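If you are new to this repository, start here. Below is one unmodified record pulled from the training split, so you can see the exact layout before writing a loader.
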Amino acid sequence: MTYDTSKDPRILVAHHACGRLKQALQQKLGIRRSMPKERMTALTAAADSAVMTLRYTYQEPADLVKMDAMRDLQEAVQELAVALDPFLTAEEAPPLLRANVAWCLRTLSGLPGRLEGPADSMAAGADLVVVKVSIVSKLGKHNLWRTRVSDGNTEYTVVTNIPGVRPGDTMAVAFLPPREVGGEVSEAMYLGSEKRTEPPGTPLSPTQVDAREAASILHEDL
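And here is the target side for that same chain:
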């Protein structure tokens, strides 16, 4: 039976990331970049075209990774990442817009790796990763906490209503489309309060964690 790539959650989320990236780059908020706008527009179009090709090829996931369309996608995303680095590292960049661009690039560049795992949940379209908590602070009068976590390479902000999260904890998160929570931009969500034993940066599959809420959020976004 032919594999239905048009319904694969990993490709659906990647397609959503293409749309969000195009929308983000159209905002007139002074996005700093190291290439002409016309070239950036062409690259986002190339990425979207590549994902659409992958979505409607009806090939097995292992074969998708080897396709020219996947190569084209990765080349476009890599060039975009280099061009947008001045914006992503600028302290004055709007936090939500910066987080959105970073999530889109991460989601698209990580597609080959996600295609190697199971696809029985919408959560398979997001990066599920082990992180280490470094900072925890209460958010005003809200029953929320602002935490900073690291995957071993990069730090992220995660706003949570899970009590008892402590610096030094190693936990699982899902990198979902960023959103403002309690006045802060949250770049991921904890997949429960369970502590993990794997080192930061370890990728997880939806079968290793309770990713039902993450899957529900992605369903709503798509």
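Two things worth knowing about this chain: Residues 68-88 form the longest helix (21 residues). The chain is about 40% helix and 20% strand.
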